[in-house]
């Protein structure tokens, strides 16, 4: 992206990482991507009582070009999926996705012809937030967890290394059908 | 077919068209020939306005909208189809998620239709009906608050949005106390309610009515006389009575055209005929009139809520017929709301028949005689109708919701064409469509 | 057709027995389902001993006069108004069903437009508000599988009636009511989208909910729910329409 991508791995890069992470997490600009019931809870989170402004992110951007967080709030229909992907593609890097609510995460109770069974079929998801709809407190918790993730995100060669490791781990991971244990 | 903008080539998968934009010179030439500033603008489906995934296709000439069309379906959830694979009682869990700002209205419309099919309208206990009315009126308040709050936000007035959501939170607290959930309650069930009011609910609702009486005039102070607000809303989104009837618009839109049509008065349900309230109307046919009607309806709703509280008397909240009423002895345990320990002790320890009955009723559900019924309630947005068909089975054969948002949104074109681009948002906000209801 | 006509004819004997009670509900409506067994589950053995039961489920059939309340008034006015237009009421109104306090006129589809216009314009009827179309798919109702159901509300007289029109699956055409009730524009598009019922005369009958390139009509009974099985820790829970059912 910039000069930091060219830095050699080491003390300098990790320092820059920390500084960049701190700056990035302190001012995340979410895109308004309200779809259904969860969108109302998302608006509530931004309004008076829950006051998302405390975390430096009360400004929901109408334009994806000015946003770096997409909160997919609600069920994603087959008709909406291409639009969603286009909005995601229009967001500049670095960008994150919170899949808010069970419908966005897995299709939820709407296991049918119309709904995409999980928004991770369309875009990569950083945080899955359960609930139908999740309470504003839960949304804020997921946002704080995302802040931690942003804080510890890597840059340059470290980012490449992290991506490689993540991919290896994903390839080795058991599919859910082969997981064993109690169903709980 | 091959044109300049879409070349075709044959592949093993069939014809593949490569669609590209037209030649720029051609576009410029055509625009010069047309000799106007006609533009087609797409708003949405993702857009800064708060009415969800609505797509507006506007043809504008300068600042004037010459044609306006809606693209909907971006939130189509297939709820009506899903209902056909669940029992009658589970249906409430689905319908409550249709128009997510008016969950109690959806549940009531559905339950009234199912009760009509079962022929048990008269057996629903009074207490259940009163609580239904109370929740519906609270819901009218919360829905109108969102309508006013987001409507204000779309005008650029964030303060009124903060006000609206502040008061809505108070109502959501009541919902949470009564039903356990802030949204999507599934509290109203065929035959009555899922459970009785918890202790302390009546006092808290009374307290809320007092607070809300104090808060409501703030909206008047902030908005009603506000010259900017008036300038943006007066004579915008004009739709007269003939237009309303032709387009099937109901609710505040119809009442802003001067017709005091309200199903609560015209075709009372849940005992509305015995409540004392008024139907506010206006003859301005515009967004401002609709705003005033919403404000006044909130005041009337507070009156109805108070009357409900005065009438509440101890009693059952579910029909006596154990073939329909779920064994809903619920209690709050360490892991959340669930069956009460007493009930579990009874069905697991002492009565095998009760266990069989519980199991059959919960997994299989009750049967509803074949036929069809239509039940309509006056939701904050207009006539919300549920057309329910049964084939005599334990699941609905077909459920169709006539959602007022869906029908009212059709009038968008009539309201916007000929007006300014900036007024489109005001007009749509005054319709107050909720896409969950429009697309279902 | 002829067999069903036989069933739907007024039956003097039965009507006499019922002593012409107001709002008499007919018992011989269309057969919409045949239930086998007691509990609807058809996989697994007959553990209950009731597996041999065969029972046909019928919708409420045609009612006989008097219908009760204002139903007769509306029916009389409608029949009179149709006669004035040289249209035999028997040809236009296939049958009238009174059930659960609601009146349903089954209209022959070729006369739907005329009937709707009469219902809207006749001062004694004045059903000025149409609350839209609801499609219903009855695969077992042979020859009239697709039904379009209209609810008409008269604000003037404070009444609500239902019109029902049917079309066979192999000729899914029904006249559009947009010219009478413009509000039906989107409702008819929705019904077309979900049931494939083609409304002749609609200004722009296109898909409204589903994407434009969608195949099939998702809310018909022969269209699967389209759910997927949920897999977790070695267990698999089938989609709701694939599970054992009891209805």
UniProtKB/TrEMBL annotation, chain A:
Membrane topology (UniProt): Peripheral membrane protein
Catalysis performed (reactions): a quinone + NADH + 5 H(+)(in) = a quinol + NAD(+) + 4 H(+)(out)
Subcellular location: Cell membrane
A molecular function GO annotation: 4 iron, 4 sulfur cluster binding
Main location: membrane
GO cellular component, one term: plasma membrane
UniProt keyword list: 4Fe-4S, Cell membrane, Iron, Iron-sulfur, Membrane, Metal-binding, NAD, Quinone, Translocase, Transport
Entry binding sites for [4Fe-4S] cluster: 37-38, 103, 132
Superkingdom of origin: Bacteria
PANTHER family noted in UniProt: NADH DEHYDROGENASE (PTHR11995), NADH DEHYDROGENASE [UBIQUINONE] IRON-SULFUR PROTEIN 7, MITOCHONDRIAL (PTHR11995:SF14)
Family note: Belongs to the complex I 20 kDa subunit family.
Subunit structure as annotated in this protein's UniProt entry: NDH-1 is composed of 14 different subunits. Subunits NuoB, C, D, E, F, and G constitute the peripheral sector of the complex.
Protein name, as recorded: NADH-quinone oxidoreductase subunit B
Species of the source: Streptomyces sulfonofaciens
Gene designation: nuoB1
TrEMBL record, chain B:
Entry keyword Transport: yes
Top-rank taxon, per record: Bacteria
Location(s), subcellular: Cell membrane
Assigned keywords, A-Z: Cell membrane, Membrane, NAD, Quinone, Translocase, Transport
Principal location class: membrane
Domain NADH-quinone oxidoreductase subunit D, chain residue ranges per copy: 155-440
Known EC number: 7.1.1.-
PROSITE patterns: COMPLEX1_49K
UniProt GO molecular function: NAD binding; NADH dehydrogenase (quinone) (non-electrogenic) activity; quinone binding
Protein's membrane topology: Peripheral membrane protein
Pfam families recorded: Complex1_49kDa (PF00346)
Signal peptide from the UniProt entry: none
Gene Ontology annotations for the cellular component aspect, listed alphabetically: plasma membrane
Catalytic activity as recorded in UniProt: a quinone + NADH + 5 H(+)(in) = a quinol + NAD(+) + 4 H(+)(out)
Top-level class of the enzyme under EC nomenclature: translocase
Function: NDH-1 shuttles electrons from NADH, via FMN and iron-sulfur (Fe-S) centers, to quinones in the respiratory chain. The immediate electron acceptor for the enzyme in this species is believed to be a menaquinone. Couples the redox reaction to proton translocation (for every two electrons transferred, four hydrogen ions are translocated across the cytoplasmic membrane), and thus conserves the redox energy in a proton gradient.
Subunit structure: NDH-1 is composed of 14 different subunits. Subunits NuoB, C, D, E, F, and G constitute the peripheral sector of the complex.
Family note: Belongs to the complex I 49 kDa subunit family.
Protein known as: NADH-quinone oxidoreductase subunit D
Gene transcribed to yield this protein: nuoD2
TrEMBL record, chain C:
One Pfam family linked to the record: Complex1_30kDa
Enzyme Commission number(s): 7.1.1.-
Enzyme class, UniProt record, top EC level: translocase
Topological category with respect to the lipid bilayer: Peripheral membrane protein
Occurrences of domain NADH:ubiquinone oxidoreductase 30kDa subunit (ranges): 106-227
Localization annotation: Cell membrane
GO cellular component: plasma membrane
Comp. bias regions, Polar residues: 9-22
Alphabetically ordered keywords of this record: Cell membrane, Membrane, NAD, Quinone, Translocase, Transport
Major localisation: membrane
Catalysed reaction, written as an equation: a quinone + NADH + 5 H(+)(in) = a quinol + NAD(+) + 4 H(+)(out)
One of the record's GO molecular function terms: quinone binding
Gene3D superfamilies: NADH:ubiquinone oxidoreductase, 30kDa subunit (3.30.460.80)
Region listing for Disordered, in residue ranges: 1-29
Subunit field text: NDH-1 is composed of 14 different subunits. Subunits NuoB, C, D, E, F, and G constitute the peripheral sector of the complex.
The protein's role, per its UniProt record: NDH-1 shuttles electrons from NADH, via FMN and iron-sulfur (Fe-S) centers, to quinones in the respiratory chain. The immediate electron acceptor for the enzyme in this species is believed to be a menaquinone. Couples the redox reaction to proton translocation (for every two electrons transferred, four hydrogen ions are translocated across the cytoplasmic membrane), and thus conserves the redox energy in a proton gradient.
Family: Belongs to the complex I 30 kDa subunit family.
The protein's name: NADH-quinone oxidoreductase subunit C
Lineage: Bacteria, Bacillati, Actinomycetota, Actinomycetes, Kitasatosporales
């Amino acid at each position: 992206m910039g000069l930091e991508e060219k830095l050699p791995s080491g003390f300098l890069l990790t320092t820059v990482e920390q500084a960049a992470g701190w700056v990035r997490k302190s001012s995340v600009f979410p895109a308004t991507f309200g779809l259904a019931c969860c969108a109302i809870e998302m608006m509530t989170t931004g309004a008076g009582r829950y006051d998302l402004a405390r975390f430096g992110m009360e400004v929901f951007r109408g334009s994806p070009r000015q946003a770096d967080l997409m909160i997919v709030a609600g069920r994603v229909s087959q008709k909406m999926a291409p639009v969603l992907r286009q909005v995601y593609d229009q967001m500049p890097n670095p960008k994150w996705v919170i899949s808010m609510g069970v419908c966005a995460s897995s299709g939820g109770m709407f296991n049918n012809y119309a709904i995409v069974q999980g928004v991770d079929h369309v875009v990569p998801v950083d945080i899955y937030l359960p609930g139908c709809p999740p309470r504003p407190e839960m949304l804020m918790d997921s946002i704080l967890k995302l802040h931690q993730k942003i804080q510890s995100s890597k840059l340059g060669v470290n980012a490449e290394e992290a991506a490689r490791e993540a991919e290896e781990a994903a390839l080795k991971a058991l599919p859910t059908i082969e997981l064993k244990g109690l169903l709980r | 077919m091959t044109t300049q903008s879409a070349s075709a080539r044959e592949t093993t998968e069939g014809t593949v068209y490569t669609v590209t934009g037209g030649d720029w010179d051609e576009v410029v030439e055509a625009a010069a020939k047309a000799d106007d500033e006609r533009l087609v603008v797409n708003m949405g489906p993702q857009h800064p306005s708060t009415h969800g995934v609505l797509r507006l296709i506007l043809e504008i000439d300068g600042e004037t909208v010459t044609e306006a069309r809606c693209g909907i379906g971006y939130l189509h959830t297939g709820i009506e189809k899903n209902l056909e694979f669940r029992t009658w009682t589970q249906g409430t869990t689905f319908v409550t998620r249709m128009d997510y700002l008016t969950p109690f209205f959806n549940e009531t419309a559905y339950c009234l239709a199912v009760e009509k099919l079962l022929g048990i309208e008269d057996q629903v206990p009074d207490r259940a009906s009163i609580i239904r009315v109370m929740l519906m009126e609270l819901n009218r308040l919360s829905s109108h608050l969102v309508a006013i709050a987001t409507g204000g936000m779309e005008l650029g007035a964030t303060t009124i949005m903060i006000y609206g959501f502040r008061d809505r939170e108070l109502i959501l607290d009541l919902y949470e106390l009564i039903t356990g959930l802030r949204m999507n309650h599934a509290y109203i069930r065929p035959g009555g309610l899922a459970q009785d009011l918890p202790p302390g609910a009546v006092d808290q609702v009374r307290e809320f009515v007092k607070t809300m009486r104090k808060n409501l005039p703030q909206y008047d102070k902030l908005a009603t006389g506000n010259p900017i607000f008036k300038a943006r809303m007066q004579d915008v989104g004009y739709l007269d009575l003939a237009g309303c009837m032709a387009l099937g618009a109901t609710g505040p839109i119809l009442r802003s055209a001067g017709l005091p049509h309200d199903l609560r008065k015209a075709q009372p349900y849940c005992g509305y005929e015995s409540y004392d309230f008024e139907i506010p109307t206006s003859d301005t046919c515009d967004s401002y009139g609709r705003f005033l009607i919403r404000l006044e309806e909130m005041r009337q709703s507070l009156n109805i809520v108070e009357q409900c509280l005065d009438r509440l008397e101890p009693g059952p909240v579910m029909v006596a017929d154990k073939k329909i009423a779920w064994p809903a002895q619920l209690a709050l345990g360490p892991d959340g709301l669930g069956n009460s320990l007493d009930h579990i002790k009874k069905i697991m320890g002492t009565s095998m028949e009760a266990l069989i009955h519980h199991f059959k009723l919960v997994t299989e559900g009750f049967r509803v005689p074949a036929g069809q019924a239509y039940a309509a309630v006056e939701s904050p947005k207009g006539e919300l109708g549920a057309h329910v068909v049964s084939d005599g089975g334990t699941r609905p054969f077909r459920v169709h919701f006539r959602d007022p948002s869906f029908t009212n949104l059709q009038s968008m074109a009539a309201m916007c064409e000929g007006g300014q681009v900036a007024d489109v948002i005001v007009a749509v906000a005054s319709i107050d469509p909720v896409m969950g209801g429009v697309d279902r | 057709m002829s067999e069903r006509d036989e069933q739907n004819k007024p039956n003097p004997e039965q009507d006499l027995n019922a002593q012409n009670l107001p709002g008499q509900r007919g018992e011989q409506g269309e057969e919409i389902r045949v239930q086998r067994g007691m509990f609807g589950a058809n996989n697994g053995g007959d553990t209950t001993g009731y597996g041999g039961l065969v029972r046909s489920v019928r919708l409420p059939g045609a009612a006989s006069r008097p219908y009760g309340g204002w139903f007769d008034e509306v029916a009389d006015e409608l029949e009179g108004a149709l006669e004035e237009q040289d249209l035999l009421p028997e040809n236009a109104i296939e049958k009238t069903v009174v059930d659960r306090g609601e009146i349903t006129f089954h209209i022959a589809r070729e006369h739907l437009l005329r009937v709707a216009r009469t219902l809207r314009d006749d001062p004694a009827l004045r059903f000025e508000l149409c609350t839209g179309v609801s499609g219903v798919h009855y695969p077992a109702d042979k020859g009239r599988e697709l039904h379009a159901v209209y609810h008409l509300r008269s604000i003037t007289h404070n009444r609500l009636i239902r019109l029902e029109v049917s079309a066979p699956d192999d000729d899914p055409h029904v006249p559009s009511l947009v010219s009478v009730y413009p509000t039906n524009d989107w409702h008819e598009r929705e019904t077309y989208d979900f049931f494939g019922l083609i409304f002749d005369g609609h200004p722009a009958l296109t898909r409204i909910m589903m994407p434009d390139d969608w195949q099939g009509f998702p809310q018909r009974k022969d269209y699967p729910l389209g759910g997927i099985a949920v897999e977790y820790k070695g267990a698999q829970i089938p989609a709701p329409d694939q599970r054992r059912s009891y209805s």
